[in-house]
Design a protein that fits this description.
Blueprint: E1 45-46, H1 50-53, E2 58-60, H2 61-67, E3 77-83, E4 101-106, E5 111-115, E6 121-124, E7 140-142, E8 147-152, E9 157-162, E10 169-174, E11 182-185, E12 191-195, E13 200-205, E14 208-213, E15 224-228, E16 241-246, E17 251-255, E18 261-266, E19 277-282, E20 288-292, E21 297-301, E22 307-311, E23 313-314, E24 320-321, E25 327-330, E26 335-339, E27 343-349, E28 353-361, E29 366-373, E30 377-384, E31 390-400, E32 403-409, E33 419-421, E34 424-426, E35 442-451, E36 461-468
Parallel strand pairs: 23-24
Antiparallel strand pairs: 1-27, 2-27, 3-4, 4-5, 5-6, 7-8, 8-9, 9-10, 11-12, 12-13, 13-14, 15-16, 16-17, 17-18, 19-20, 20-21, 21-22, 25-26, 26-27, 28-29, 29-32, 30-31, 30-35, 33-34, 35-36
């Protein structure tokens, strides 16, 4: 059965390069990274198509130094935010839909760097004085309306800016906090603050305090926060929830919009002795991405905080990080931006397939296929005989969701219907009886996986596995 992505008609595959790549700290002067290590090439995130970026993937401090003529030096980069500004939109010109505005915090210089066009960049904070001077800022968040909020940690406040299209304009400061580390804005413009020093989360609307989440023991130095709500245009599930990291980066907690605890994940559950969760981002399928400063990677969880995978390792090459910090995702196209101690990197959401295996299912003899997806994907499957001839194509660009997946094929190489529960396929054992058996023999299964948005036309992963029945 072939299932069309329910939002497929809205997805435009980008055909033009993003020259600015003004993501956060290291703008137009980027370099082409070396070819990936053949032994390490995870595909949960993938590099954009060459024609989209002309090979641009990664930027370093040296390039920022040259471009900004020594005015800005990379110094303790922190949060990143990305959005598509409404004022940039030209409804009659769909070619500009991927032109996003990106804000990056250069905490060591008390500055915010952002792009004002596809090729130009501006900086706030180098020359500001008195009330408008920043002090060790960290997290930042942005809304398509132009609203921007910054956690001005050293000044114990959140700063509200407005960007009418080309300039960050001061609006006001929200005080009464103690060293806030991060801030998030949802599609309906509700603002959530990780008030770190006060061990609480604050909720604002129109810059007025609505809620205070501060039950005894609920938070321990909350540091990272991200939010999504049902009014979000580019959201598959139309979810509404907030995720907070606390306990010095050792814990993630998921909350409802009213502050009800929904799920807790401790770092120990990842099987690592040391973890430091930093910043968070949510994608189109409500998956939660979290940077890990200690393990030099990005962790990925599904919308229920079930663990999916880790992406990246320590190093300065392709798909490697050195103490990653900020992360931002533009949900419509799956554009992902990550900064670390020395660089900023640009990816598209891809997909990886793990633990693929094919085994016989007895009585009758069926073919059982198990695999684990790190992202919702289109899955195709071919059955080959021992000579490499294609016998059947039971799956053709069939939508499957992130997490563990299972298929059963009958003797006619037809997929057996399953029930769906929370996007997990379930089989009634009674329905696996009285079916034609798969002929005994040796087979090869060729599986092809492709993500459902920007990388769809440019990337796919093929896995071949043997099966003997």
């Amino acid at each position: 059965m072939k299932i069309k992505h329910p939002n497929f008609h809205k997805i435009r595959f980008m055909r033009r390069p993003i020259y600015f790549l003004a993501f956060a700290l290291f703008l137009p002067f980027l370099f082409i990274a070396a070819a990936p290590d053949e032994k390490y090439d995870p595909t949960t995130l993938v590099f954009p198509a060459f024609l989209h970026t002309y090979g641009v993937r990664k930027a370093t401090a040296k390039h920022l130094f040259l471009y900004m003529q020594n005015r800005v030096k990379v110094s303790n980069p922190q949060g990143i935010a990305a959005t598509r500004l409404e004022v940039w939109d030209e409804p009659k010109d769909p070619k500009d839909d991927d032109e996003i505005t990106v804000y990056g915090v250069n905490s060591g210089q008390n500055a915010v760097i952002y792009n004002t066009s596809m090729t130009a960049v501006a900086v706030y904070g180098l020359y500001e004085k008195n009330e408008r001077r920043l002090n060790r800022p960290h997290g930042i968040t942005a809304h398509r309306s132009g609203e921007v909020y910054l956690a001005d940690t050293g000044n114990n406040r959140i700063v509200h800016f407005f960007n009418p299209g080309r300039e960050l304009k001061w609006v006001r400061a929200l005080g009464g906090m103690a060293a806030p580390r991060d801030v998030a804005i949802s599609a309906d413009r509700t603002v959530y603050v990780a008030d770190t020093g006060n061990n609480r989360v604050l909720v604002f609307n129109n810059d007025q305090l609505l809620q205070t989440w501060d039950k005894a023991g609920q938070f321990a130095s909350p540091a990272g926060i991200v939010a999504t709500d049902s009014t979000e245009q580019w959201s598959y599930y139309k979810d509404s929830f907030i995720v907070v990291s606390d306990q010095d980066g050792q814990r993630l907690q998921k909350f409802s919009r009213r502050g009800r605890l929904l799920k807790t994940v401790n770092a120990a559950a990842l099987g690592k002795t040391k973890v430091k969760f930093m910043y968070l981002a949510i994608d189109y399928y409500s998956n939660v991405f979290v940077t890990d400063f200690t393990n030099h990677c990005v962790h990925k969880f599904d919308r229920d905080l079930n663990y999916l995978t880790a992406f990246g390792r320590r190093g300065d090459g392709d798909k490697e990080f050195l103490e990653p910090r900020g992360i931002a995702i533009y949900k419509r196209f799956g554009q992902v931006l990550v900064d670390d101690r020395e660089s900023a990197q640009y990816y598209w959401v891809g997909v990886d397939a793990l633990n693929c295996r094919a085994t016989p299912y007895p009585q009758p003899r069926l073919l059982q296929l198990d695999y684990f997806l790190t992202e919702t994907a289109y899955v195709s499957a071919e059955i080959l005989d021992a000579n490499g001839a294609v016998l059947a194509r039971p799956l053709d660009k069939t939508l499957r969701f992130a997490g563990p997946q299972q298929e059963f094929l009958s003797g006619h190489w037809e997929p057996i219907a399953a029930t769906a529960e929370d996007n997990r396929r379930r089989y009634d054992p009674r329905l696996l009886q009285n079916l034609p058996a798969v002929p005994a023999g040796k087979y090869v299964l060729r599986l092809t996986f492709s993500a459902t948005y920007s990388s769809y036309k440019y990337f796919s992963k093929t896995v071949e596995i043997g099966a003997e029945l």
